[in-house]
Amino acid sequence: MTKLILFLAVQISLLIAISSAGDDGEHFARTIDRKLLGLHKKEKLTHFKVYWHDILSGPNPSSIRIQPPVANSTTYFGGITMIDNALTSKVEMNSTLIGQAQGFYAGAAQKELGFFMAMNFAFKTGKYNGSTITILGRNTAMSEVREMPIIGGSGLFRFARGYVEARTKWLNFQNGDATVEYSCYVLHY
What is the pLDDT of residue 5? Predict the structure, then answer.
């Protein structure tokens, strides 16, 4: 017992000495074992399809313009819209709610309708409840198919990467409301 106490005292003294040593700014990072984060497992490829409902009209819109586009822009250039859009299992808005798309899109092209998209798909049901994927990229909204990268995720999608394909299924040119199919291909552990 005495040897154990002496051993622990020496270990604690060494730990204190090391942690109180001057920090020269070069030891803020360290290499760790991948297994500590579950990265030794085989990666999975998950595919899912959700429908993104961008509602700008009515008494309870899910998209709010927070910065108008520049004067005389025909492409929404400079405009910024915050979103909290429903993600559903089918095209119909009243189909099963899968989660929310939360983030913003901004008019980033002067000669075409092109958006910079930054959003999280926050899943609220089933196996992926509480998990997210993060999408960041260019969306040329009038193209038939738009591809944007998945740059990360959380929960079951921790360390995610991949891409989405967006296809407009419905668009109201009068008020801007739209439904877009997102086909998601996600590599994750």
Answer: 73
Place of tokens 């005292």: 9
Q: 């709610």: which residue's tokens? A: 97
Please say whether the beta carbons of 139 and 117 come within 8 A: yes
Type of residue at 48: F
pLDDT at 174: 95
CATH topology of domain 41-188: AOC barrel-like (2.40.480)
Q: Which helix (H) or strand (E) holds 5?
A: helix 2-20
Q: Where are the beta strands (DSSP E) in the chain?
A: 44-54, 63-67, 80-88, 97-107, 114-123, 132-140, 146-154, 161-171, 178-188
152, 132 contact by CB (below 8 A) = no
Distance CA 78, CA 43 (A): 39
Entry pTM: 0.83
- Domain boundaries of the chain, sorted by first residue: 41-188
Per residue in 154-166, pLDDT tens? Answer: 999 999 999 999 9
- Residue 52 has what pLDDT? 98
Q: At CA 132, angle to CA 160 and CA 146, rounded to 5?
A: 70
